[in-house]
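pinning this so it doesn't scroll away 📌
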Amino acid sequence: MKKICAALILSIFISVTYAQSNFYKLGVGLGAGGTYSFTDVKQGNFGLAGYATAEYYFTPFITGSLELQMGTVKGGNIKTDPHNREFTNGYKAITLGGKARLGQLTDFYYNDFLNYIKGFYIGTGAGVIVNKMKSIVRVKPDGSGYVFPGSDNSVNAVVPINVGIDFYFPDQWGDIRYVVNVNYQTNFTFGEGLDGYNDPKTKFKNVSPDLYTYFSVGVRYNFGFVGLTNKPIR
């Protein structure tokens, strides 16, 4: 009887231990990619941008983050745009946000497909974007002398919407230390600073928030103090 009780206790202990995993609570990352603009200027264009991020893991699959982003947003073409408008915005943005990953909701340990996509996530946040025009057509080049109203320097609120996936790689002890990230971000800006133009609605169509998209690939390094989860994430 004592042997049976001891074996039962041991099996319970092994099961509990097996079902629990450690995870690092902090992460830092870098990445880069391309932007594309959707503004009052009819024609969008591609730019380049990079980012740095710091993340806090509430669970292995739910995080809060601080992101710094810097690059260019471009649009228009002085020759082909109907109003000869063109701009290049050398922007900087800082946002606070959060992400929730599929692994928080699924039992992926015994399913290969769910295990592969456990890092798929959606997220959002809020912050500010600092706009600085590196170049802009301010006077319409048709001989009319019309000056496009707007500001070369401005600060607007921004709301990012993120969709992406994390791919996890363990360290020599089996803990998730390294992450490769692929992300698609849509950034809604509130104000007229992204393209530098603020023409009256009576002259130009201006009914939607300016936005830009950002496709990026990055890497992240997890470290710091550890948390405990009841999911076997290794």
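📌 and the second one:
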Amino acid sequence: MNLILNHEAQEANRALSRRRYHQHDERGYALLALMVAMAILVILLSAAAPVLKHEAQRERELEAIRRGEQVAQAIRSYTTLTKGRLPTSMDELLEGAQTGRTRKTQVLRRSSMRDPLSPDGEWRTIKQNDRAMQSFCNDVRRYAETLRLDPSTTLPLVLQQEQTRACSVPINLGVAEPLEPEPLLSDAPSSGPFVGVASQSQNTSIINYYGIDKHSRWIFTPLFR
């Protein structure tokens, strides 16, 4: 009887040991499978990172264009409402145009005051007679493949005059415009009458705006809209 009991106890111990071995083996396989899955996930994320970065920059550029064109429209509205007076600062543009003794008409949303491409979020204001505007006019003419841009008769007179001034320099359509001079890129936003805004970012763009592939050369102005 004792021999039978001892034999059964030994068999039970062997079965328990086998179960424990298989359980340990299964845990090892599960851990290995988890490590393989994590490695595959890391590889997929690494491959997707450049695409995600590209799309993120593209979205920022689209938002910069949307906001910049809103600023351009605000400059036009402000100049029209004030009978030809240009805004002198982004804050003044945000406050709106004086259309009565105490009443102001809003022409710009607060969100459009921020440039999503510039490190500090500030637009670079483009003043009258700014050489950057002449460069932009030449870029627009190349994009439109025309040597002449007729002044818009719907613009306030001061903007018509600025458009004529900016586009008075003849160009050769077959010659590329030189890079914008560095001093024009480093100017900090400042007060004074302005006819447009541009980004302070000097990075190459993904989107071509009027055929231009550099953020700092994109000028948002009512002169060419």
